[in-house]
Design brief:
Helices cover 32% and strands 23% of the residues. By secondary structure, the chain is an alpha/beta fold. It has one domain (7-172): Class I glutamine amidotransferase (GATase) domain (Rossmann fold, 3-Layer(aba) Sandwich), CATH 3.40.50.
Length: 173
């Protein structure tokens, strides 16, 4: 198991894209990683866009990003909510400063934009936020997955296999 002893934060809020949260969580757990679901409140049920629930284990205040090896930001509409929490932005900034893997898919780029970490980076996202990514100083590419150092980005659910292969590769180093 390549990711044994690795700890990953999966942040969550309501209206996450169900597959973009669950597929990465399950793949990482299959590889031996510990993945903690972290939301505004601990032990709260959050509902995805298509009705699939997930229960948070910790609140944003309960954890320190320094205790983790990576962070995942799901897509859907939750990134628009998540980027409003200073704790979330601080988690992403800490991971960026320490060059730890940051995974973002679909609309998740909004969180990285609000954390102000995309200037000079190559990324992808859903085409719907392409202009937002470019205006944040990133170079946007229309590819299934883009890896720029520790930032791994992807467009949408059909790209999940490529996204997770790349994320697992970066995290395993």
């Amino acid at each position: 198991m390549r990711l044994q002893n690795k700890k990953v934060i999966q942040i969550v809020s309501d209206d996450f894209e169900d597959l973009e949260l669950w597929y990465p969580v399950l793949r990482l757990r299959e590889e031996g990683a510990t993945v903690h679901i972290v939301g505004e409140e601990a032990n709260k049920k959050y509902i995805g866009k298509y009705g699939v629930p997930v229960e948070s284990e910790f609140s944003f205040q309960d954890i320190s990003p320094n205790d983790y090896d990576a962070i995942l930001v799901p897509g859907g509409w939750s990134p628009d909510k998540l980027r409003r929490y200073e704790e979330v932005l601080n988690m992403v900034k800490t991971m960026d400063e320490k060059q730890k893997p940051i995974g973002q898919i679909c609309h998740a780029g909004w969180v990285l934009i609000s954390a102000n970490i995309l200037r000079g980076k190559k990324v992808t996202s859903t085409p719907g936020i392409k202009d937002d990514m470019i205006n944040a100083g990133a170079t946007w590419l229309n590819e299934p997955v883009v890896v720029d150092g520790h930032i791994i980005s992807s467009r949408r659910p059909p790209d999940l296999p490529d996204y997770m292969k790349a994320f697992i590769e970066v995290l395993s180093k």
